[in-house]
Write a structure and sequence with these properties.
- The longest helix is centred in the first third of the chain and has 16 residues.
- Strand 8 and strand 9 form a beta hairpin.
- It is globular, with a radius of gyration of 22 Å.
- It has a seven-stranded parallel beta sheet with strand order 7-11-6-1-4-5-12, sandwiched between helices. A three-stranded antiparallel beta sheet has the order 8-9-10, with no helix packed on it. A two-stranded antiparallel sheet has the order 2-3.
- It has six helices and twelve strands.
- By secondary structure, it is α/β, with parallel strands linked by helices.
Length: 255
């Protein structure tokens, strides 16, 4: 079994996120870049399968600038075997259309049985990348599943909906995306951290890929900083606090 895990590096969710006001693109220097938590859960899904199937090969795939290497090394320290890094200055600001086409083109350079991703990143919140990659590759996809069962020939899982739970399945090869209900990632051990430095990372540029999609990217027309936080309304209970609170909520269309 060969499993590809799609990796995205995002700004630390616990730090301030900023846009470059000149370009409208993410200011990568404003906060520490980290591997997305949902990606760690996707990798954990692959590693859990590998725990009981030792011949499994896990490959990480990411598109991004030089700094993405740190996130790939972390994934390798957790137990992945190798990584593919697509890097090219012409990919800066790529939108979902361009990104999915490039990832699919990179996937076409290798073989695989299963592709695993998170259901949505913590920065863009698009939630459609796994399905778009599957469409490019002509593969079945199971998106936003909470639990996963992998066999040699098929994949199955459970997806929560507003009306209940769906049991979904597909034959391999396939693309799946997991939710935050999937198990949390394990911690890297000392041996894994040292070993990650020796594991191979294949670097690809646009010239190495066959990408049919146009050079689409997000066009930022204007940016504005979030306004400073203002002091809230303080209600002192003098026997009528309930009424004042209700009036405040009604005025703000909160009830």
């Amino acid at each position: 079994m060969k499993i590809i895990v799609l990796v995205k590096q995002v700004p630390d969710t616990y730090e301030e996120r900023k846009l470059d006001t000149a370009t409208g693109i993410l200011d990568r220097e404003a906060s520490e870049p980290i591997i997305d938590e949902i990606v760690e859960r996707a990798l954990e899904t692959a590693l859990s399968y590998k725990d009981s199937h030792k011949d499994t090969e896990i490959v990480l795939l990411s598109m991004g600038p030089d700094g993405v290497t740190a996130s790939l090394r972390k994934g390798l320290s957790l137990g992945a075997d190798s990584a593919i890094h697509v890097i090219d200055d012409n990919l800066s600001g790529s939108d979902l259309v361009r990104t999915s086409a490039v990832l699919a083109a990179a996937l076409a350079t290798t073989d695989y049985d299963l592709i695993i991703a998170g259901n949505e990143s913590t920065d863009g919140r698009g939630g459609v990348m796994p399905a778009m990659v599957a469409e490019h590759l002509g593969l079945p996809h199971l998106t936003s599943i909470d639990s996963v069962e992998i066999t040699d020939t098929a994949i199955s899982g459970a997806r929560e909906t507003e009306n209940g739970t769906l049991d979904v399945h597909a034959s391999l090869p396939a693309v799946i995306s997991i939710t935050e209900r999937a198990p949390e990632a394990r911690f890297p051990n000392f041996k894994g951290i040292l070993g990650a430095k020796k594991k191979p990372i294949t670097v690809l540029s646009l010239g190495d890929l066959s990408v049919a999609e146009p050079s689409a990217h997000s066009l930022i027309l204007s940016t504005a900083e979030r306004p400073a936080r203002e002091a809230g309304t303080k209600i002192i209970d003098e026997g009528n606090a309930g009424v004042e609170l209700a009036e405040f909520l009604v005025a703000g269309h909160l009830i």
